[in-house]
């Protein structure tokens, strides 16, 4: 009878008939794969956590810097500075334009003086003087003085009301300076002549 058999022998015989060795090997492989997958997942989580902590610190620093910049920014001062810079830009542009016009005027005047000098050198001083005398083109003393002043870089302006010369503009091309001198009759001509030479 079966019941007379040893239970252990019966179980062993039954287990041998089922052939569970391949299933056990599969379960072992599955368990090993699950363990490897768990380790890989844990490693990735650790790396991602470290990266997230680094980004969190960077975000905190950037937020602090942004808050500091926002708190220190004054919109009114910024607008005032922009307006000041715009005004300065237009002022400089105007000065540059005026300087360019003045340079063109002086170049034209210099060309004219060079032409006159060339004519005088070609004719000779005596021939030029004789031609002027014969043509009746004797120049006025004041006009000659003005030409001399202009050749030295001095422009004299006449007062429309009184008719006297009340202002002189002295240009120093070497230094790039321009000086405006108001001429007062109470000072002597020697005083202004010395001043002009020092300015030039």
Describe the structure.
With 200 residues, the protein is mainly alpha-helical. Among the domains are: 75-138; 139-200, Double Stranded RNA Binding Domain (2-Layer Sandwich). Helix content is 73%, strand content 10%. The protein is built from six helices and three strands. The protein has helices spanning 7-18, 21-72, 75-123, 125-135, 141-151, 189-199; strands spanning 154-158, 165-172, 177-182. A three-stranded antiparallel sheet has the order 1-2-3. Helix 3 (75-123) packs across helix 4 (125-135). The longest helix has 52 residues, at 21-72. The chain is rod-shaped, with a radius of gyration of 52 Å. It starts with 6 loop residues before the first helix and ends with a helix.
- SSE pattern: HHHHHEEEH
Tally of individual helices = 6
Shape: rod-shaped
In round numbers, the mean pLDDT is: 78
Spatial extent as radius of gyration: 52 Å
Judged by helices, strands and strand pairing, the structural class is mainly alpha
Strand content of the residues, in percent? 5-15%
Low-confidence stretches: none
Strand order of the largest sheet: 1-2-3
Main β-sheet description: 3 strands, antiparallel
Number of strands: 3
End-to-end separation in angstroms reads 143 Å
